[in-house]
Amino acid sequence: MSSRTYIVEDNATIRENLVATLEELAGVKAVGFSETEDEGKAWLTENDQAWDLAIVDLFLRQGSGLRVLEACRNRRSSQKVVVLTNYATRDIRKRCAQLGVDAVFDKSNEIDALIEFCAGMGSPAGAPLNQ
């Protein structure tokens, strides 16, 4: 089973590489993306049955990923929200935890951990996926 994943990321190159990597290595199916806070909040709340995982960058072309995270606070317990940022400082991680985020990953050195997280979502107890 693949995780239906929505991505809020304004850098097209990062977004395209992320989708390709996660689809290939983690069994993720990208169901859409947005580049701004307003688009991300609107899609995630209006389509709350259409996604299992949201990957959110904090610094967007318009607005802030933190407000996207706030909009996802009342999601179903099976839905996961993770942050992928270049600014994974202690303070940012703490703020994200306060907003109910499931994990924070640094773009520069934690992509493997993100892949592992995503791969574990689609299988029971984190067992390897059978492709």
Automatic annotation (TrEMBL):
PROSITE patterns: RESPONSE_REGULATORY. It comes from Rhodoferax sediminis. The modification 4-aspartylphosphate is found at residue 57. SUPFAM superfamilies: CheY-like. Keywords: Phosphoprotein. This is Response regulator. The keyword Acetylation does not apply. Pfam families: Response_reg. Residues 4-122 form the Response regulatory domain. It comes from the Bacteria. One of its GO terms (biological process) is phosphorelay signal transduction system. The keyword Transcription regulation does not apply.
